[in-house]
Amino acid sequence: MRTYDFTPLWRSTIGFDRFFDLVDAAQHAGSDDNYPPCNVERLGEDRYQISLALAGFAPDEITVTAEQNVLTVEGRKAEKTQREFLYQGISSRPFKRQFNLADYVQVRGATFDNGLLQIELTREIPEAMKPRRIAINGSPASGLREIETKVA
């Protein structure tokens, strides 16, 4: 896989820092561990849900943090006793998953049921940013004047 150096672009652009950070993060996303498995789905025009499969974890062992356009889900298994496994197929290793959120996407809540963590997200665009219809003032005939022409 190729890597790109964005340093020349950082020197000649202003205000695109977040964009280049996202491109850089997407470039390294393929090499990261994809544990725990997750789904990201659209529930409506402005509603989303992230579901993470966290078998073996309890709700008090999971932390969900939203800070500036980044959603972080961390989990650390609290082992109370040593157990002897003949085969361990359910992973209980610590993890940290981060999701970059678009502007105006807010975390509405999280639920944990049957080993599945579901995080509800909504996009709320401020009224000032939404398109609005502009009224056109004046009557249609007031701006027209009839031009007299002389017959030759």
From TrEMBL:
It comes from the Bacteria. InterPro entries: A-crystallin/Hsp20_dom, ACD_IbpA/B, HSP20-like_chaperone. PROSITE patterns: SHSP. Keywords: Stress response. The keyword Nucleotide-binding does not apply. Residues 29-139 form the SHSP domain. Belongs to the small heat shock protein (HSP20) family. This is Hsp20 family protein. It comes from Bradyrhizobium sediminis.
